[in-house]
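Researcher: Structure for this, please.
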Amino acid sequence: MSISYGICAYHTCHLIVCSYLVCHYYLRWDYCNVPTCQPPTTTTEATITTSVLTTEATTTATEQTTSQATTSSQTTSTTSNSSPSTCSTPELANLLELTSDLRTVYQRSNLPTIDGTSSNGSLPWEEGEETCTTLLSKKKVLLVGIDGLRADVVGMTPLPNIRRLQSMGTYSFWADVQSSASAVSGPGWASMFTGVEPSKHLVSGNGDLGDRAYPTVFKTVKDTFGLKIAASVSWHPLVNELIETDGTALDITFEAGSDCEMAAKAEDWIRSEIYDFVFVDFDGPDSAGHSTGFDGYAETYQKRVISVDKLIGNLLDAVLETSSGEEWLIVLTSDHGGEGTSHSAYDKYNRKIPFIVASNSPRVNVGFMPIDDPGSQMDVLPTIMHFLGGSSAVPEGLDGQVFGFKDYTRTTPPSSTDTSTCGTDSALQADYRGTVNVTANGVPCQAWDSQTPHSHSLTPCNYPDAGLESNYCRNPDGEPNGVWCYTNDPNKRWDYCNVPSC
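Model: Predicted structure, token format:
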């Protein structure tokens, strides 16, 4: 316990008590009479440093300062009127034009290039022409997959290392997951790795990863370019079931017990400079979402996303410290989003994800993707192949496209109109004519022409054009969230079904 003497200072402001040694013998302690501190000001009063100044002195000082300020203001006004300001504020329109193409700005900033020269303000390639070539031996790839990362959470949460990636390339917080299966990990990762829909790669859930019918990006890169590839994962089935079916795609793998272990191993690989292509899988956000909710305002989920961002920072630092003379591509995305404590429903919380492509290649744009072409998780494979070998290296027949490159022209992805597998949002999925006959919770549907266990008027006779066949999920009355059915559970009259949107 201490006794304070002298003038009160704002940064030490606190209640002060006397030591029992200097107080009344029978009183152990008591409060002292010390004035309350006031915050420092930016006006003339800030010059007052002692409490012994008299009111008259204070008033005089204030009047003198006010007079000086008035004179200074008049002088400034006169100067402003007599000669234009030399302030370097740019015209707003010019600033907007400058920032609309940051890659061009970077190129014209005379930054040292990977071959040790200067760009001298010139652009080494022309749009539409693949004249900017870097040796394959100088190209490296880092693929960052984050399980269960909701797109809006990335946009609203302070994530400095993901922001660093944004500033070096093209990004989207509205990218799509695959459209022909539920938003679960199996089909999400498989579409990310193969560049095609689940209807082609045949992985429809987490239990059939070994059914994959299309080659992964790792196998394609290995067979095409012979690069050394490493994968460090937190969700082990990715390497021992989905990626590696014959042991020829990956040169080294690590199945970690935590995201920290997983990232540390990947950082070691990057710093070793042995591997050309490193894949990392963060599982923490998905675990936190299932536990407490996929929500940026949920503390557990938010903290886990922030912790992953810090680990990404370690990986990025390792890249930056060892990348001299190299051209890097860093791709970040997710297998699915989430809502509540799940992510299988067909809504945008589950089916929208972030997608970022960062690079020091002048072929990569800097900025955001347009809202009408936000990208897809299926863009991973074609983007990596295009970076390594140009458009001729991209396999044919993919559903994904190259993301973020100036020397590639994207086409608007065709919307599926096969109503035997999906329903259109504009029709509230009333046009769905598929054979799904269980609810989102797995309860079998009641036949539309049956009145047991629930009686109703939505019969094939009353709604002949609604496709009310058998017990298939339909939307004859325009329910806002899509197709549904009466259930065979006497205690549950009806429920929605899981059917993708076209």
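Researcher: Any notable elements?
Model: The longest strand covers residues 139-146. Residues 439 and 497 are 4 Å apart (CA to CA).
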